[in-house]
Design goal:
305 residues, disordered N terminus, alpha/beta
Length: 305
Amino acid sequence: MTSESTTGSTDQYTFQNPVTRFESITPPAEHTAEPGLESSMEIKADRGETSYRGTGRLTGRKALITGADSGIGAAVAIAFAREGADVALSYLPEEEGDAQVVKALIEAEGRTAVCIPGDLKDPAYCISLVQQAVDGLGGLDTLVNNAGKQVAVESLEDLSDEQLDHTYKTNIYSFFRVTKEALKHLEPGSAIINSTSIQAYEPSPTLVDYASTKAAINNFTKGLAQQLAPKGIRVNAVAPGPIWTPLQPSGGQPKEALPEFGKDTPLGRAGQPTELAPAYVFLASSESSYVLGETLNVNGGMPSP
């Protein structure tokens, strides 16, 4: 199956009104179980399965994406494959079903997909993940640190040490660990892209732990970009706004807030994962060769630095 045969609906190059490109969703005020599965969502997210059109911008690239089974990570994986890249997918073992769907979409483009389940809280997995990706892809030149833990808690007094530890180990420790291991393989021209969030600038009162890790990712990105620039390795970040993914109904938002999710943006709707993918493609490609330490905000118009 080629890119041309998978774009059954309007692609990202078609002139269209951003307000109405995707409908404004009203999710039910109820939670699904963690870690959040695409297959269990009542309102499905659009990851570009039938719309993203590739133009060969990443031909021959070899990418590792964490949190690649669903949501933003899956959309990026699909886009990368349609742009010509082979992709290694990192995800939790319980997300195997979702990952296999993404794997099939990548292979439908004639690209290699390597599935590497494991828990990024485990330092040993962070190390073995990179080596498995290199072995499966025959090298590595693009790293997308995207996996995240987000669970809303009403007050700091209710934030358990267990959740705090889980959030930091997933959201920022793994970025350090996976990147450190990947640097053994990345050559000049390689790219590292980190997923941060609007929460780094406008933290919600229920997401104090999550938001603080996203601010740390912004700083990590800028510092590491300066360190690696002389080596010809570019480091950048993408900061999504309210994007509809399995993370949100599985505890990422208070359930009573779900029906209005994303409706307070200037566009008046939540974003879809496929709307993030072009930002990652740009930062991975040589088109952005003079872009380092930058955070691209894809948030429906929410003011941010």
